[in-house]
């Protein structure tokens, strides 16, 4: 039986909660050495503290991984403003790979560590499977992750012929 995405989300939200669930990601892997491309409507740079803020329709691309948000604050490596250490995305964050998508209120992408932590009403879709929680931690190098905080899930078994 197939459900529309809206019905699937409603069913997932009606399911009983769990505290934590490990998640395997086939598509949420990224090469931390690949260039990070950021596009936005505006960029503000503060030379005194070395901060940079991208605002408006922000799109961050690294290999096959795409992150969209209203705003992204850039954190540079200590002592080296040429190396991005973290990207803190806020304002309706979407993280997309060729096979998976996740939404949340905010996310912190630690480029050097190859991790993304999404928080606030996280919704993850993997094909027809849907999972929700309050925090999703993803290791982009290993393709593994963990969902925490009132985890609710609906898993779709394979289609039968």
What proportion strand?
Answer: over 45%
Report the biggest beta sheet as strand number plus sense, adding barrel if it closes. Answer: 10 strands, antiparallel
Sheet/helix structural class: mainly beta
Helix count equals 1
Give the helix level as a range of percent: under 10%
Quaternary assembly: single chain
The unreliable regions are 1-17
How many extended strands?
10
Give the ordered list of helices and strands.
HEEEEEEEEEE
| Straight-line N-to-C gap | 12 Å
Average predicted confidence as pLDDT: 81
Radius of gyration, CA atoms, in whole angstroms: 17 Å
Dominant shape: elongated
Structure description:
This protein is mainly β. The protein contains 1 helix and 10 strands; from the N terminus they run αββββββββββ. Helix content is 6%, strand content 63%.
Give the structure's gist in a few sentences.
By secondary structure, the protein is mainly β. It has one helix at 5-14, and strands at 18-24, 37-39, 42-46, 51-62, 65-77, 80-96, 100-110, 115-126, 129-139, 144-154.
């Amino acid at each position: 039986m197939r459900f529309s995405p809206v019905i699937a989300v409603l069913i997932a939200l009606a399911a009983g909660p769990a505290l934590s669930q490990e998640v395997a990601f086939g598509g949420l892997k990224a090469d931390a050495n690949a260039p990070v491309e950021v596009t936005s409507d505006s960029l503000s740079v503060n030379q005194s503290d070395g901060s940079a803020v991208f605002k408006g329709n922000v799109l961050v691309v690294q290999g096959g991984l795409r992150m969209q948000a209203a705003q992204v604050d850039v954190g540079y490596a200590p002592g080296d403003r040429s190396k991005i250490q973290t990207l803190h995305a806020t304002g309706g964050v979407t993280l997309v790979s060729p096979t998976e998508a996740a939404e949340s209120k905010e996310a912190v992408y630690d480029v050097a560590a190859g991790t993304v932590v999404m928080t606030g009403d996280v919704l993850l879709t993997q094909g027809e499977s849907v999972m929700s929680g309050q925090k999703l931690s993803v290791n982009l190098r290993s393709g593994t992750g963990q969902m925490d905080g009132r985890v609710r899930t609906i898993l779709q078994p394979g289609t039968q012929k």
